Amino acid sequence: MSDPKKPTIETRFEQALFASRWLMAPMYLCLVLSLVILTVIFVRETVAMVPHILDMSADESILAILTLIDLSLAGNLMLLVIFTGYENFVSKLDIEDAKDRPDWMGKVDFSGLKLKLISSVVAISGIHLLKVFMELGHGGDHGPTPETLQMMVIVHLAFVVSGVLLALMDYISAKTAAH
């Protein structure tokens, strides 16, 4: 007869599986480094824009601002993935007493993360598409071809439809779980 306090092969295997969640930690650390890179690009874009502020047309300033908005949305998306992914899949962040802790932290589950991700992707895609449309009227040979533009619209619409379908699936799933 085996000792009940002695871990079995199954128990050790399950402990190893549970510990494997920490393999995700370096990935979240690399996402933090990617956020640093995105911040550097944001600052570079801002610095490049400043000398031309007085010479910019309204369209050029809107395009420059849309670029900054695009970058900040991508940064927000990365933060959301970092915090939510780490808390849901690796370990809880022990910062409950921090007064500047965002309200959503610890409350966004995987389903909520999917919806926030797709909505951010749709917003980023929409801003990029708007920038391309605004640049069309300025001529030049470096603009997108009609086929490229059509493909960009199709991809954006695919993101929108995916987002609606994900929201619908979560809604149906929540309704089914409530019954």
UniProtKB/TrEMBL annotation:
Where does the sequence pass through the membrane?
21-42, 62-83, 115-133, 153-172
Q: Which family does it belong to?
A: Belongs to the UPF0114 family.
State the annotated membrane topology for this chain. Answer: Multi-pass membrane protein
- What cellular-component terms does GO give this entry? plasma membrane
Protein known as: UPF0114 protein GV832_06095
Indicate whether Phosphoprotein appears among the record's keywords.
no
**Alphabetical UniProt keywords:** Cell membrane, Membrane, Transmembrane, Transmembrane helix
Pfam families given in the database record: UPF0114 (PF03350)
Q: Which InterPro entries match?
A: UPF0114, UPF0114_bac
What NCBIfam families does this protein map onto? HI0507
The record's subcellular locations are: Cell membrane
